[in-house]
Amino acid sequence: MSARRGPVTPVGIDELLERVRAGYTRVDAQEAYAAWSAGALLVDIRYQALRERDGLIPGALVVERNELEWRLDPTGSHRAAEATGHDLRVVVICNEGYASSLAAASLHALGLHRATDLTGGFQAWKSAGLPVVPGSEPPTAAPRP
Asked: What stretches pass through the bilayer (predicted)?
């Protein structure tokens, strides 16, 4: 039997985002690229229609948001091969940098203490002129600089 908690005080999404983002340091597009170049795992959580419309980041692991925790938990039975340990540096990327903040906080709760997200999301990456391939191409591992 689980312990019953008291009533939860409602919080708006803006306050929730502020709270979770205070728990880690977010990165901009250039910092995400540098982290990837140094071995970090980029994880694209955008849904398929956005990936098809806007393109893909070569070398990023595509994991839709509803599967993220199962695929990145290094102790889970459904983990991705890339989920090698709790010390893994992960940069979560959504479309504009909102859902990825909540996703990064969820990864922290799983013990992935180096997880972060990309401020501005995929749109910031693309605007920075960083590598993007058409969304119709299957994601492939791009050589790291």
From this structure: none
Q: What is the DSSP letter of 76?
A: S
pLDDT tens digit at each of 145 positions of the chain: 556 677 888 999 999 999 999 999 999 999 999 999 999 999 999 999 999 999 999 999 999 999 999 999 999 999 999 999 999 999 999 999 999 999 999 999 999 999 999 999 999 999 999 999 998 765 555 555 6
Residue 56 located in a structural domain:
yes
51 located within any domain: yes
Please check whether residue 11 lies inside any domain of the structure: no
Q: Which domain holds residue 58?
A: 25-127
Concatenate the DSSP letters of all residues of 88-117 into one string.
--EEEE-SSSSHHHHHHHHHHHTT-TTEEE
Nearest in space to 88 (alpha carbons), one of 61, 55, 66, 56: 61
Stated pTM of the model: 0.88
The total domain count for the chain is 1
Domain membership flag for residue 12: no
